[in-house]
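TL;DR need structure tokens for one chain.
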Amino acid sequence: MLTRRGILLLTGWAGLLCASRAVAQARISVVATFSILGDLVRNVGGDEVEVATLVGANANVHVYSPTPADAKSLAAAKAVFVNGLGLEGWLTRLIAASGTKATVVVCSDGIRPLEREDQQRVGHEVMDPHAWQSVANAKIYVANIRDGLSRAEPSKKDVYYANATSYLSKLDALEKEVSEVIGEISPERRKIITTHAAFGYFADAYGMQFISPEGVSSDAEPSARDVAEIIAQIKKQHIPAVFLENVVDPRLLQEIAGETGAKMGGTLYSDALSEANGPAASYIELMRSNIRQFAKALKS
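>> reply
TL;DR here they are.
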């Protein structure tokens, strides 16, 4: 037999459960195309959004193949956040297949795109989509996310603006930190080689030189001739360090480092966050992890 105290406890638990369900229902469902973008959306949306990310941690957005579950996520979403600049070549077909009525927000709108050589077609230029590698550009992403969420759910506009303002202050501090750490590296040593041309915006913003092996792409297996040319390139340009990335096969750079004597840097995070317990579980942690690796390998 329930006592009066027991009845009150049950009533209280029932009330908390109903309140919890109401909060969950009040959240709007949104989709971000890849993990870095998902983190930015979560920081702006806060408790008001439920974010589904299509391309997860340590995954390569360039070669991603959408699934039927992705189409269902888009169909249920109130807003879809995309990078743009040609990053998600598979997205147009996915949106059409999903039949979504969601607001589509291109987070790179307003950013001056850089051009780089197409790694698969030498002599051709393409837009570099990796604009988030500059913290100043990440601030533009945040403003676009804020405005996109406000259009999707106008009643929560004040919350999105407050969250964005708070997060932008953190990005201001991050940008200062990045500039200071890179500034402590001798200018002549600020050059590295990676297998993926993902750091053009970082180089442009902070005065580093990232050399991606000519003719090698992140979704193609390099030939023996490619490797030989990379080795010659490193020796000719006196590149002090080579770096791994979390979205490419590490064996290539390990072989190159062994052949050239260039210092093997740690793992860089370019297109994806690490797993939740890793060193780059958020955008801010990603940038901090990368600059720590640069400083460790390049300081003379």
